[in-house]
UniProtKB/TrEMBL annotation, chains A, B:
Mg(2+) 4 binds at residues 33, 48, 78. HAMAP family: TMP_kinase. Mg(2+) 2 binds at residues 50, 78. ATP binds at residues 125-126, 152, 224. It comes from Hyphomicrobium nitrativorans NL23. This is Thiamine-monophosphate kinase. The keyword ATP-binding applies.
Length: 335, 335
């Protein structure tokens, strides 16, 4: 049995994944079924789970390194928006067949890079084989000071809406990933096109912004299914209306070029997914302090709108006229 | 957008899953991306993740109620074996298509029943649509007194090996689920065959045994991939040898009938999976106290073997002769 074990499921776990858990004592070298987490004193724990699957969230021929990064990044993004500090994660892998060693090495390296960038460790997981797309499920655990979790549903009328980073790069990057020839239609050179594709492949959750969110935001969430849809969720959960000013939506240079070349792409910017930026509602009297804290953290934030009474979500285009956003955002179960 | 939301992904979550989270304040009605968990004072948290997928862990035509139960039970089983009390879980669902309302109602009812039986609540999750088999991933969180987590790798030479419940029912039940005509070959009437299939469909983790494991076991794990394989894992992780006496392995009446009718089925009993019983290593001087505590908890435990020096795992058959167990147990990536 021992020899068999050196080549089977347990061996795969020990060779590829146990090294990623070596910094976390409660992982027991991935030789136990469970992970042990001693909660940091005075902290609440924040848990989130998101899976990425081949053909849905990534392409079969994406680099294993990028796939691994993305699987962790999309979960860390959720934690950051709650003001939480990442601690650990569990990994649930489903392979249709055992991946080859080169793929596993790239996947391991991608996880290692993401762990280092985001400050968390592998604590446990589950590996199985089944038909269907390769799927990587992550459950991430973070810590937030007791009683300070930043909810989605606690925005107030009058709160200003801030967005971190730039919007729409990943959605435009996805279009380019699907058809590189679109770069010319978007007026983009190769460097710019590559930058947008990179934003799709490797989301960059804004970890350093978490303390500012914790201190100044009345509500926050990450933008993963498109600003229009996610802002609607924040407004609905909070019982407020929201208005987004398109002209204030921050665009990267490549995205600005693309939108100026093809104005219809602004709808993609507003409604496409995979941004993994933070949308935060901040009371007006704390807005300057939030801006200052964000600047000190090295993360750009832009005021993109405001909450109000009522329940409508309206979006003004770059020309100031209301946009039709009825279909906005990604939905796994569209009606 | 509001109307769209009443029929899409968010509506599915609100209609089917939010009621399961109503008892857990940190779930925020499933309107947030993250769940909030305030750790009980003086307790460590125990985390585990296991997925069940159609065609691998259940059949497409299994009742939705049973599928839901199994998805939770296999995770709770991991917690119980560590001496932990279940607190909450996250649910990661992947559907190839939106299931119909009757299926969702059965699935919801199965989760509700399992939550009540196991004493935990839905805290959060993730739902997406993708090709491939229906998959239900669960991450369960439990609590154990600080510093008391029962590891897999801490058995000592001389420890007695105890098994809860009876072994092999689920593996025999799976054979019957695949081909009901086997009942006659096993010498089983319809009631007995149904009982074994029920053990496959609805695992019963031994929650009430957790305090006895916590107090008396030097090491423990749940048996999910077959006793032979899982005992090997415990022995290897602990650096001990283990010997299992087949004649002591506890069998249910239907399983005993089947094995007496077809002695080869004893290999299935030893190496089949899906038992979700507890394998515990207990020092000899604590064995009586463990037996007493187990009896008071209402869970039968049987002494099935012993740990020793060295590293071999040997299994004596019901006739006392050594069995060849080189291929034993379920492996998702067999070599």
């Amino acid at each position: 049995m021992a020899e068999r074990e050196t080549r089977g499921e347990d061996a795969l776990i020990q060779a590829t994944f146990a090294p990623l858990a070596s910094g976390f004592p409660g992982a027991f070298g991935l030789k136990d079924d469970c992970a042990l987490l001693t909660p940091p004193a005075g902290m609440d724990l924040v848990l989130t789970t998101d899976a990425v699957a081949e053909g849905v969230h990534f392409f079969a021929d994406d680099a294993a390194h990028d796939i691994a990064w993305k699987a962790l990044a999309v979960n860390v993004s959720d934690l950051v928006a709650k003001g939480a500090r990442p601690l650990a994660y569990l990994l649930a892998l489903s392979f249709p067949d055992r991946p080859d060693d080169a793929w596993l090495a790239g996947f391991q390296a991608g996880l290692a890079d993401a762990q280092a960038a985001f400050g968390l460790s592998l604590a446990g997981g589950d590996t199985d084989r089944r038909p269907g797309p390769l799927s990587i499920g992550v459950t991430a655990v973070g810590a937030v000071p007791h009683g300070r979790f930043v909810q989605r549903g606690t925005a107030q009328p009058g709160d200003l809406l801030f967005l971190s980073g730039t919007l729409g790069d990943a959605a435009l990057g996805l279009l380019l990933r699907q058809d590189r020839a679109r770069a010319a239609q978007m007026g983009l050179d190769d460097v710019s096109a590559r930058a947008l594709v990179g934003r799709y492949l490797r989301p960059q959750p804004k970890l350093s912004l978490a303390p500012a969110i914790l201190e100044f935001a009345s509500a926050a969430m990450d933008v993963s299914d498109g600003l229009v849809k996610d802002c609607g969720r924040l407004a609905r959960a909070s019982g407020v209306s929201a208005r987004i000013e398109g002209v204030r939506v921050p665009l990267s240079e490549p995205a600005r070029t693309a939108v100026e070349h093809s104005p219809d792409l602004f709808q993609v910017v507003l409604s496409g997914g995979d941004d993994y930026e933070v949308l935060a509602a901040v009371p007006p009297d704390r807005a300057d302090a939030f801006r200052d804290a964000a600047a000190k953290s090295g993360v750009a934030v832009a005021e993109v709108g405001q909450c109000g009474d009522g329940q409508d979500v309206t979006v003004a285009g770059r020309d100031g006229r209301a946009l039709d956003v009825a279909g906005g955002g990604w939905d796994h179960f569209p009606s």
